[in-house]
């Protein structure tokens, strides 16, 4: 038996196929065509946006039924000083060579949180600019001239990931630094 989201997807796909059959979008000489019908343009854009929303909801639903957790995904392993030991041991707990004992523990990572927020922002901007580009393409049968500026803007937005990239890059060289 089909789930409700599968029925919605099948209905949207069928409506799009019917719209494509009625549209003159694939005529031989696209440069001389009239703009695509408004209803068709909005149908395609709505189909894409609803498809993105359904995909996000399917991913969320699949993750909701598993043991996966966003707090675990945003955490990274860090060495911390052990503060638990025998009752008579000094704090922090020292090993035989009088060095503090460290344990690996999952700790919240601000760089991963920044990367997640940056990814969400860039995703929404990409979807927004993509929607306007699809609309312009449906009206003029070519992409807007300013699309290169949009690409530059989106690439500049990748600087939101700089703290995460620097953190990961610096971890490559941890083995070269002397141990304390």
Overview of the structural elements:
- With 180 residues, the protein is mainly alpha-helical.
- It folds into three domains: 68 residues; 34 residues, no CATH class; 62 residues.
- It is 57% helix and 8% strand.
- Strands 1-2 form a two-stranded antiparallel sheet.
- The N and C termini lie far apart (62 Å).
- The relative contact order is 0.10.
- The mean pLDDT is 74.
List the helices and strands and how they pair.
Blueprint: H1 4-22, H2 38-64, H3 70-73, E1 75-81, E2 102-108, H4 110-140, H5 147-156, H6 162-172
Antiparallel strand pairs: 1-2
Return residue spans where pLDDT drops below 50 for at least 5 consecutive residues: none
Task: Profile the largest sheet.
Answer: 2 strands, antiparallel
Give the tally of β-strands: 2
- Can you count the helices? 6
Helix content: 55-70%
> Beta fraction of the residues?
5-15%
> What is the arithmetic mean of pLDDT?
74
Give the gist of this structure.
The chain has 6 helices and 2 strands. The chain is mostly helical and 180 residues long. It is elongated and about 85 Å long.
């Amino acid at each position: 038996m089909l789930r409700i989201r599968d029925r919605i997807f099948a209905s949207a796909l069928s409506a799009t196929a019917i719209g494509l059959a009625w549209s003159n979008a694939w005529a031989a000489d696209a440069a001389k065509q009239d703009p695509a019908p408004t209803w068709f343009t909005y149908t395609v854009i709505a189909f894409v946006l609803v498809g993105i929303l359904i995909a996000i909801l399917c991913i969320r639903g699949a993750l909701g039924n598993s043991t996966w957790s966003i707090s675990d995904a945003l955490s990274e392993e860090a060495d911390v000083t052990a503060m638990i030991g025998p009752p008579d041991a000094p704090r922090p707990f020292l090993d035989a060579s009088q060095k503090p004992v460290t344990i690996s523990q999952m700790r919240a990572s601000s760089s991963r949180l920044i990367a997640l927020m940056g990814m969400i922002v860039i995703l929404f901007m990409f979807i927004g600019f993509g929607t306007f580009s699809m609309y312009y393409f449906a009206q003029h049968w070519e992409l807007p001239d300013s699309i290169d500026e949009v690409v530059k803007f989106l690439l500049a937005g990748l600087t939101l990931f700089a703290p995460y990239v620097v953190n990961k890059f610096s971890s490559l060289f941890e083995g070269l630094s002397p141990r304390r």
